[in-house]
């Protein structure tokens, strides 16, 4: 491997050719990393003029990161940070992000933040879950006109199947860890979504707003 394929900073081997292979630079997963490690990886990416996108960055870590990168953009609800964001040409289509409940908004915010950095227009609709299904019908036009839809739900995760049965667009379901005891921190919603009878539904991991946004961005940019 040559020096222009990755940068070895001891704590990480930063992939600086990922955008050439996959269309977007390496993304930093902040959970489990220290603020100093995030800073070092960010510097390696910035040394090659890459956009820095980091997910699962706590406010405590961010307070230290800000001292090194005062121009960083951070969303505390999304727990996401970006530096040196590129002006990617956005396609005409947009991503619709729909949550079942207000408690699912943090995962939606992660998806929104990442989708924006990846160069997408986003329209978000919160709190239209099946406990009050009439709320959803007021927003069907916005949802149906999207190029791809992300549906985020905890509890039993039913909203993803409902929406997928009403649209002719790809639907990406995100189970969340929201719910009481037998929701098993999102496993119930995950299994429900995986067993959906609605055709065209794909599912990412529990609370994985980033993964949904990345997949949706690829579809939206086709």
TrEMBL record:
Residues covered by the PurE domain: 93-222
GO molecular function, one term: hydrolase activity
Biological processes, Gene Ontology terms: 'de novo' IMP biosynthetic process
Stored InterPro entries: P2CMN_synthase_LarB, PurE_dom
Coiled-coil regions listed in the entry: none
Pfam families: AIRC
Domain of life: Bacteria
Descriptive protein name: 1-(5-phosphoribosyl)-5-amino-4-imidazole-carboxylate carboxylase
């Amino acid at each position: 491997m040559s020096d222009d394929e990755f940068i070895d900073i001891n704590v990480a081997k930063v992939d600086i050719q990922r955008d050439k292979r996959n269309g977007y630079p390496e993304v930093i997963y902040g959970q489990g990393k220290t603020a100093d490690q995030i800073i070092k990886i960010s510097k390696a990416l910035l040394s090659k003029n890459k956009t820095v996108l980091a997910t699962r960055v706590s406010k405590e870590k961010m307070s230290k990161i800000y001292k090194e990168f005062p121009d960083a953009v951070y969303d505390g609800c999304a727990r996401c940070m970006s530096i040196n964001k590129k002006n990617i040409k956005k396609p005409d289509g947009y991503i619709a992000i729909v949550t079942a409940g207000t408690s699912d908004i943090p995962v939606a915010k992660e998806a929104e933040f990442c989708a924006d950095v990846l160069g997408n227009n986003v329209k978000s609709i919160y709190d239209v879950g099946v406990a009050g299904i009439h709320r959803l019908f007021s927003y069907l036009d916005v949802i149906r006109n999207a190029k791809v839809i992300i549906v985020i739900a905890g509890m039993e995760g039913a909203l993803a199947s409902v929406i997928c049965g009403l649209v002719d667009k790809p639907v990406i379901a995100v189970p969340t860890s929201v719910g009481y005891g037998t929701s098993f921190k999102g496993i119930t919603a995950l299994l429900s979504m995986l067993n959906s009878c609605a055709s065209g539904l794909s599912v990412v991991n529990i609370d994985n707003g980033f993964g949904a946004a990345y997949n949706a961005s690829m579809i939206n940019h086709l």
